[in-house]
Each structure stands twice: as structure tokens, then as C-alpha cells.
């Protein structure tokens, strides 16, 4: 019996030694831990996150529009009390982002190390939101988020003022980084800054060190490729007090998300510690990334031959089913569409999302076709699917190219175009879903929608102006909307306005004879020069925006018909009251006088300025933004100018033939052989 304690100690030592040699074994103590691999690791995961057989933490699985999260299961004590100071912490992790082999030059959207008060990110969105926030919770820093993140971003998003499509950033309560830098590391051999690519086809492993000094309030982020020791100079060094950001106890982990381009986001190893350096990672135990070119050896012939007959029989039985299914979900694909692959949805995916385009999912008959609500099976994201008819291939290549180009537009006040699908005689466009529908239903009390207060209307006006300004002047090329109106302004769950259907009138243009005079737009919004020449410009958009301003403020349609008064334009009515010095009498009576009279008069006056018959007299959207934000005084209108506007509206500068059609809420367009245009 006296030898039992020694035998017990030896056995215990051997057990510990064997456990320590297991791949993915976590060394933990107090508020520190280390994973040199994740086999058997106890992590809280959701979405597409999983631990592979090799011990890799895979956050996304090469599907589009998905997200995955993985957190240490227990919270970390960052402060001694709720109002205390965040103590120092440090961490190391090794990651890799594998782009789809077919699109090795692109990846979306990125991943992040995150500290958050909870582990539930079910309300977060994929793509540019990285699975952390959504369109309502991001924007200006929201202190209630209590989120600190180090993002590894592979897509440039104008919405968040990203510096490029390959950068590292420090995020505090929002995805607009407080500091960011192109991915790189300082080489201690010569002190030079060397670039790093966050993603690759083969999967280059990159080390990341994050260190926070609780006394100095200093955040350092350092990168280096595998095989390189931690550089002495960090890539990012920023002073930010995290005491008001990180809660007393918070969870640490990772989030990743994809957009239209498929990518895999991996974490290979991870260590963390409070009030001291993070434990070292044993790189010898770190799992290997999958080889995209690896091919599994063939089965032995003696195994393959017995099942060959069964396989052939199964194939024969399945051929008929497959052919029938292919016919049901047949798509139109041509060689030139290869480059647009990441933005293309399968017809079956959209068919399933809308349950076969059932009428119960019909949102409405909008610009160019019917719009259906759908839920993508993989990401569970809500989308709007628009079915557009086209009768020939004439101009379709140029239009699809433009659709994909527009899909790169990222702005909080534009409806995000996610992608497309093409069938014979039909084009399907996929957008973000806006749960509160279109603005016109609120302005005119349709579907029992409540009356919008003035503050809501004024904010919607500024939202639409911001989106239009981005299209005209802030993106890399000018995008002319061509059909600005209340029914093309969609409201999300937070009543933030998003301008939709931009650029879709180009489908008509790409398929028509350049010598044909045609008008694309909506009655009451069409600028005089557009009705005469058919040539759109940013200033024809400004004209339509002027009508939109009057429509939102007055709660009236741009053109009205009555037996007593015939056909009348809203701008003429507002102009008449301007002459009387009684502009406020045109404000929507449903507001019952509860509005800011100075703001309303400014908006109505600006609406008249934008509706000037001479394009050169209209303000640009940059000027419009300055007026709405109060950064520049609104020019004073003189009676002579307004009399000229009234005169020109009834004479040569406005094509009176445009008003010969009965007014409707839909757009008009000349029909030509090959392409059928609805709105």
C-alpha cells in the first residue's frame, strides 16, 4: 500500500502527457486558454460554423450569403465592476480565407475577432455586416451594442468608408472602423512594410496578435505570415478607452460572413489571456488546411466492380427524373456569363425561396414586372425577387453586365441588388427585402398604413437625397436613376428609406434603336428636355426628385385628374400658392398642422427649384444635400423665375403630348421589337 501514491502519480503524469499530445487540446487556466487546433474543443457555434475532422474551425462553408459564429463557452471577466476599467488582455490567432477556386481573385466579405456581451447574433446579417450587425444596428456608433472587433475585410464597402478590399480595422460598436490599414506587416529584418493578401486560392495562413494595454488605453494589432516571428512594430496602434464599450463580463470569439462570392473562413489556432501575454501556440499540432486540388484516390477495383452494376442501374433510373427536373428549372447560360458567376442565383434556388412564385408571396407589380418575397434556403435571408420579361438576347449582355456593376454599389440608402438569374424570355433580379414596403402606400393611406409624421418625412427626403447623391457623384461612375418616385422608395424595418430600381430603365435602352425617340419614366416626374429628346442625365433625375419633394410634403400625386378641373400638375398647384405667399397651405392636411413650418417651406421651395424647366437652373444633388443639411442657405426665388417656370411648362419646353395619356402610377415607355417593358 505504501507504493500506491507513487504509482498513482506516475499514472497521472502519463495521462496528462497523453492528453497534451492530442491535437486541439486546450491548455486553460484562469482567464486564459490556448487552442493549437480545435479537435474536441468546447466552443459555442451557430450558423455555418463547425469543427472539421482535421481540427479546423470552419466559420463559413463556401456557400454564398451565409454567416457563422464561434465563441468560448464561458464569459471572460474584463472588469472588476460594471463601471470599472477594462483590464489588459492579449490574444493570438491564426486564420486563413480560401476563395472559391473559380474566382481566386475575389472573396467576400470577411471575418472578425469579436468581444460582445452575448453570443446570440441571430438578428445579424451576412455580407458587408460580417455576421455582427444589421442595417438598423450599424451606422453611427451605437453605444448599446457594446461590441469590440478586429475585422479582416475583403470587400470595400462605401457604406462603412472602407479604405480598400483587403484591410484590417478596429471596430467599436459599428462597422465603420475607428482605424484601419491595408493588410501588411513590418519586416524586422529591414523595417520595411510588406503587403499581405488576406485571402488566396490555396489558403495562406496568417498570424494575428491583438494586445490591449488597460492603463495606456492602447490597442495594437500585428500581422505576419506563418514562419515569421511577431514583428516588433504593430500594423495598427490606436488609443481607445474600451471601458465604456466592453461589459464587465463578455464573450470572446469569431464571426465570418459571405456575400455573393463564395469563400471559406478558417481559424487554425487561438490563444487568449487577461493581464498577461497570450499563451504560445504549438504550431506543430496545428491542423492543415484542405488542399483545393487534392483528389481522393480511386477505390480498389475489387470494391468498385461489385457495385458498378448497381450504379449503372441507379443512373438509368435517375436519368428520367433528372431530365424532367432540368426542364422544370431550366436556365439560360452563355459563355460570356462566366465572369458574373458569383452574382448568379440558380432558378431552383429562387423557385424554392418563393415556393414556386406563389401569389401569397406577391409583394406587388412594380417597375418592369412582378415582385415576390422569398427566403433563401441556405442563409435564411429574406429577399425580394423581381421577374422581368425580355423577348430576345438583344442588349441582354450589356444589361447583365450593368446589373452586376450595380450590385457592387453599397450605400445605406440604396436597395442592395444581390444578383440575378436568367431564363428564356425572363430575367430574375434578387434584392434585399424591405419589410415596410414602399413609401407611396404611406403617403396615400393604402393597406391601412399610418400617416407619416413630418419628422419621418423629412428624414426620408434626406435619405433619398443621400442615395441619389451617391449615384450621381460618389461612386466610381455616374449612375442615372431614371425613375425616381415614391413607389420606388422602400422602407426597411427601422423606416430608413432605400432608393430602389436604379438603372433598370437601361434594359430598355440596350435593346432599342438609337435613332428612336423614346421616353422612359413616370408621368409627372419627366423633365421637359427628357420628353423632347429621350436623353437622361443627372439633372433629369433632379427634376424627378423635385416632384418627389412636393409629393412627400403635400401628400398628393404629381398629376391628378378630375371631371371638374381636368388634368393638373402638383408643381403648378404649389407654384400658385407660392405666388400667393401661402406655401404652407399646400402641406399635407393629414399632418393637422404638426410640422416644422421652416423645414416645410424650405422643402417646397427646393422642390420648385429642382422642377425648373431649364436644366442649367436646377441645383445639383451636392447642392441639394447642402440645403437639406443646413450647410448652405437656400437661394431666394424671384417672381420672374417662377413666372418663367409656369410659362415654359405650358409652352415649348414641355412636350404636351406626354400629358395626353391618362395618369397612372406606372412608368411609360415606347415599345420596340425584342424587349417588352412594363413600367
UniProtKB/TrEMBL annotation:
Asked if the record carries the keyword ATP-binding, the reply is: yes
Where does the protein principally reside? membrane
Binding sites annotated in the UniProt record for ATP:
386
GO: which molecular function terms?
ATP binding; carbohydrate binding; protein serine/threonine kinase activity
Q: Which InterPro entries match?
A: ConA-like_dom_sf, Kinase-like_dom_sf, L-type_Lectin-RKs, Legume_lectin_dom, Prot_kinase_dom, Protein_kinase_ATP_BS, Ser/Thr_kinase_AS
* Limits of the Protein kinase domain: 357-637
Write down the CDD domains for this protein, in alphabetical order: lectin_legume_LecRK_Arcelin_ConA, STKc_IRAK
Catalytic activity annotation: L-seryl-[protein] + ATP = O-phospho-L-seryl-[protein] + ADP + H(+); L-threonyl-[protein] + ATP = O-phospho-L-threonyl-[protein] + ADP + H(+)
List the Pfam families: Lectin_legB, Pkinase
The stretch of residues making up the signal peptide is: 1-18
Task: Look up and give the membrane topology term.
Answer: Single-pass type I membrane protein
Q: Where are the transmembrane segments?
A: 303-323
What EC number(s) does this enzyme carry? 2.7.11.1
Give its localization.
Cell membrane; Membrane
List keywords of the entry alphabetically: ATP-binding, Cell membrane, Glycoprotein, Kinase, Lectin, Membrane, Nucleotide-binding, Receptor, Serine/threonine-protein kinase, Signal, Transferase, Transmembrane, Transmembrane helix
What cellular component GO annotations does this protein have?
plasma membrane
A single Gene Ontology biological process assigned to it is: negative regulation of response to salt stress
The EC class name is transferase
Q: Which family does it belong to?
A: In the N-terminal section; belongs to the leguminous lectin family.
Query: Could you identify this protein by its name?
Result: non-specific serine/threonine protein kinase
Its source organism is Setaria viridis
Amino acid at each position: 500500500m505504501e507504493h500506491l501514491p507513487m504509482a498513482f502519480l506516475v499514472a497521472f503524469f502519463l495521462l496528462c502527457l497523453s492528453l497534451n499530445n492530442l491535437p486541439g487540446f486546450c491548455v486553460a487556466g484562469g482567464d486564459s486558454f490556448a487552442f493549437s487546433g480545435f479537435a474536441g474543443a468546447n466552443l459555442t457555434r451557430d450558423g455555418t460554423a463547425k469543427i472539421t475532422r482535421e481540427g479546423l474551425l470552419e466559420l463559413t462553408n463556401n456557400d454564398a450569403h451565409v454567416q457563422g459564429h464561434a465563441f468560448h463557452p464561458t464569459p471572460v471577466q474584463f472588469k472588476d465592476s460594471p463601471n470599472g476599467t477594462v483590464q489588459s488582455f492579449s490574444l493570438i490567432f491564426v486564420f486563413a480565407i480560401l476563395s472559391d477556386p473559380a474566382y481566386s481573385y475575389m472573396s467576400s466579405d470577411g471575418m472578425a475577432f469579436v468581444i460582445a456581451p452575448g453570443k446570440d447574433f441571430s438578428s445579424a446579417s451576412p455580407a458587408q455586416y460580417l455576421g455582427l450587425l444589421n442595417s438598423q444596428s450599424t451606422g453611427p456608433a451605437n453605444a448599446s451594442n457594446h461590441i469590440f472587433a478586429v475585422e479582416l475585410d475583403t470587400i470595400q464597402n462605401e457604406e462603412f468608408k472602407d479604405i480598400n478590399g483587403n484591410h484590417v480595422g478596429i471596430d467599436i460598436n459599428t462597422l465603420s472602423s475607428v482605424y484601419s490599414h491595408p493588410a501588411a506587416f513590418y519586416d524586422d529584418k529591414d523595417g520595411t512594410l510588406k503587403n499581405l493578401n488576406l485571402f488566396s486560392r490555396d489558403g495562406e495562413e496568417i498570424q494575428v496578435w491583438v494586445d490591449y494595454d488597460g492603463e495606456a488605453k492602447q490597442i495594437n494589432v500585428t500581422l505576419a505570415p506563418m514562419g515569421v516571428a511577431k514583428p516588433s512594430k504593430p500594423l495598427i496602434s490606436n488609443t481607445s478607452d474600451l471601458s465604456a464599450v466592453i461589459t464587465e463580463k463578455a464573450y470572446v470569439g469569431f464571426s465570418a460572413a459571405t456575400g455573393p462570392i463564395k469563400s471559406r473562413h478558417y481559424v487554425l489556432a487561438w490563444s487568449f489571456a487577461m493581464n498577461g501575454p497570450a499563451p504560445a501556440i504549438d504550431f506543430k499540432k496545428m491542423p492543415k488546411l484542405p488542399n483545393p486540388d487534392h483528389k481522393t484516390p480511386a477505390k480498389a477495383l475489387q470494391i468498385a466492380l461489385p457495385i458498378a452494376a448497381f450504379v449503372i442501374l441507379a443512373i438509368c433510373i435517375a436519368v428520367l427524373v433528372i431530365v424532367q427536373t432540368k426542364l422544370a428549372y431550366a436556365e439560360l447560360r452563355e459563355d460570356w456569363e462566366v465572369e458574373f458567376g458569383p452574382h448568379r442565383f440558380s432558378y431552383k434556388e429562387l423557385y424554392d425561396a418563393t415556393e414556386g412564385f406563389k401569389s401569397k408571396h406577391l409583394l406587388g407589380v412594380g417597375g418592369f414586372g412582378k415582385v415576390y418575397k422569398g427566403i433563401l434556403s441556405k442563409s435564411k435571408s429574406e429577399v425580394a425577387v423581381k421577374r422581368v420579361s425580355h423577348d430576345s438576347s438583344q442588349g441582354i449582355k450589356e444589361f447583365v453586365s450593368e446589373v452586376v456593376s450595380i450590385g457592387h454599389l453599397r450605400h445605406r440608402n440604396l436597395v442592395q441588388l444581390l444578383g440575378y438569374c436568367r431564363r428564356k424570355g425572363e430575367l430574375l433580379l434578387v434584392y434585399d427585402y424591405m419589410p415596410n414596403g414602399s413609401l407611396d402606400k404611406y403617403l396615400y393611406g393604402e393597406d391601412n398604413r399610418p400617416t407619416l409624421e413630418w419628422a419621418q418625412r423629412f428624414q426620408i427626403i434626406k435619405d433619398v437625397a443621400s442615395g441619389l447623391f451617391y449615384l450621381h457623384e460618389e461612386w466610381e461612375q455616374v449612375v442615372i436613376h431614371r425613375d425616381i418616385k415614391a413607389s420606388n422608395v422602400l422602407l426597411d424595418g427601422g423606416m430608413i428609406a432605400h432608393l430602389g430600381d436604379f438603372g433598370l430603365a437601361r434594359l430598355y435602352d440596350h435593346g432599342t434603336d438609337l435613332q428612336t425617340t423614346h421616353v422612359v419614366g413616370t408621368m409627372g416626374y419627366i423633365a421637359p428636355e427628357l420628353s423632347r429628346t429621350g436623353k437622361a442625365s443627372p439633372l433629369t433625375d433632379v427634376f424627378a426628385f423635385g416632384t418627389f419633394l412636393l409629393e412627400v410634403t403635400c401628400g398628393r400625386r404629381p398629376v391628378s385628374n378630375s371631371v371638374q378641373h381636368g388634368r393638373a400638375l402638383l408643381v403648378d398647384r404649389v407654384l400658385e400658392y407660392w405666388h400667393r405667399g401661402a406655401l404652407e397651405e399646400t402641406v399635407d392636411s393629414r399632418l393637422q398642422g404638426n410640422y416644422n413650418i421652416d423645414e416645410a417651406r424650405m422643402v417646397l421651395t427646393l422642390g420648385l427649384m429642382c422642377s425648373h424647366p431649364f436644366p442649367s437652373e436646377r441645383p445639383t444633388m451636392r447642392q441639394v444635400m447642402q440645403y437639406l443639411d443646413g450647410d448652405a442657405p437656400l437661394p431666394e426665388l424671384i417672381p420672374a423665375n417662377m413666372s418663367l417656370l409656369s410659362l415654359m411648362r405650358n409652352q415649348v419646353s414641355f412636350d404636351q403630348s406626354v400629358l395626353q395619356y391618362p395618369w397612372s402610377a406606372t412608368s411609360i415607355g415606347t415599345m420596340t421589337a425584342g424587349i417588352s417593358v412594363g413600367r
